[in-house]
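Lab notebook, bench 4. Still working through the backlog of constructs that have no structural model yet. Next entry is a single chain of 744 residues. Request: give me the structure tokens for it.
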Amino acid sequence: MSSAAEQEAVAAERATPEAVVNGVSRKVPGPPVWPGASTPLGARFRVGPDGVAGTNFALWAGGAEAVELCLFDEAGRETRARLTELTHEIWHGFVPGIMPGQRYGYRVHGRWDPWTGGRWNPAKLLLDPYARAVDGEFLLPPEVYGHVRDWPQQQVADTVRDERDSAPHVPKGVVVHDDDDWADDRRPKTPWADSVIYELHVRGFTRRHPGVPEELRGTYAGLAHPAAVEHLVRLGVTAVELLPVHQFAHEDHLLRRGLKNYWGYNSIGYFAPHAAYAASGTTGQQVGEFKRMVRALHAAGIEVILDVVYNHTAEAGELGPTLSLKGIDNRGYYRLQSDARRYADYTGCGNTLQVVQPHVLRLITDSLRYWVTEMGVDGFRFDLAAALARSMHDVDMLSPFLAVIAQDPVLRRVKLIAEPWDVGSGGYQVGAFPPLWTEWNDRYRDAARDFWRHALPDVREMGYRLSGSSDLYAWGGRRPYASVNFITAHDGFTLRDLVSYERKHNEANGEGNRDGTNDNRSWNGGAEGPTADEDVQALRRRQLRNLLTTLLLSTGVPMLVAGDEFGRTQQGNNNAYCQDNEISWVDWGLLEEPGWRALFDLTARLIALRHRHPVLRRRAFFSGRAHSADGLRDLAWFTERGTEMTEGDWYAPAATLGMYLSGRDIPGRDERGAPIADDSFLAVLHAGDRPVDFVLPGPPWAQRYEVVVDTSREEQDEAPGVALPAGTTVTVPGRAVLLLRVAA
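Model written out:
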């Protein structure tokens, strides 16, 4: 047992910073490391004892034996200091004089024992999981791997520790001071039922925008620019859903092929805005730039939803790099198999975060709250959310993650969207998430695609999807807006490509066209890809109008993808995750072409129609029952004969469906407690290639109708404006939608 004096001497020795220059360490004089506090986690600039300004560092590293804080000056010289305080597995210390802008990382000591899941390697500089800004880019040379990446026997390579220093090759965390109280910001707080979501990529949306200054294109500032915001306002969307903006890394297999991860589903910093999207700088400036972007969108009435990837990280499996969590506490952060060398992989990306571990769950929820309270965002779309809902193995709707979200006073109030599946056994969970959650509804996507390529055996599936998917969501207090309806998303064909290609064309990805789904449910109209055939071109544009009209008339929350409203193409690539170029970037020049401009105008008109008419954005499911003596119901379905559909009609092959929406029977009341009343509409969807005669239903449904939208028409500016008496037979052209309003 050492004496108190000896213990103090050891503590003083550990607290003395250590400089590392050219791989040689030496003790240098410097500020001491004071005990500091174990909370909050991360690097937090504050005023410490005796009014001394500095930064408190706190890192959870459950099984570690020691933690070194590594500070870097502008020349890249490293100074190390031991964090000697340990509270509930959190290593912490306060370093006087450390100011915002300071770059830092950690080296964590422990046992190298891959067979039991221990992968500590102090030669590797690790990114703070709570870093609020990251300076530099992950390029993945051999030095950043905890094991010898190029070991001749690859089957055991992950067991051989690499002793080379990774610090010169990896980004550093940055100390950021955040004193913004958001007092001047006004969140739109758009109700779910009134929402129209627009999925976009921060870089790709403005990279080619002629109205955005060159130096701002592809950045947060570019998205905040009036020219970009104006397009969103004119279109009428209420929220942008941003593809991942957490700091992410590029995969090694892409870098070797001269490509990079463009989409960003490879997160490594859950608190840091991706530095490459900042125009103002990467030593903390990206944080302020992101906030200004959010403010600009809020001022325009547009909410900001983040696509977040908490199911896995960029460290991949046992042969992946050591960038952060793997070197801090591999066994604590990741789900491991019974053979602890291997990772449980429910994501297809090599690893899965162990969300049932309290400190991992804390990391996720701390990150979510940070983006809401300090970065101003309004909601989240959770990539592969089923992986987060797994308890020990199976998906569990009473899992710790879902339980914590449900009771969190901040998170339960924001928009929560689940991608309700993962790649593991039992991972497909569409319709299963609890109240508070909405879901990407791929059943809607598949039905809409199949209907318009005339591939559905009958119209039952289409009826459910048009009317809010009650078969999936009418339970447990869920509402129609639990269904996020979409026909395209970032993953897959663009809308234009959906009607132009029947096969994927992913050769540019360098994977022999093996990547990307083969189940596209697309139809090219008679020619594969670009064609000079004007009839095929006209048919494709009509199909685009049909798909967009269907989406925006359906009950639920519609989601559009940036550029689909004016014919963006990826040249048939349905997996453009690694195409940071013209394949993925929005081509704003299309708006100068009359045909594509007309498509934008129709989309904006349909969104405006949706905003004006509550019957198109119901907050409760249809009952299908008559609420008055005349027998008028809130929802009715008709055949082309003008008769209500029978059970036999639902099961019979058909290409035509009439949907009547009554504005007289809308449940609920407005903000002043008055009943909600609206116009009534009849939508006729005809997917056959030949015209069909459709008889307009008579009383009690209507006496007269007026055509509002006719997708057989290239231009929609001049409404036909003719009153059609009930009982009239109208000819619906092949592959078209007629939307008619019941006239008084």
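Notes after review: The two ends are 95 Å apart (CA to CA). The longest strand covers residues 53-60. Flag for follow-up if needed.
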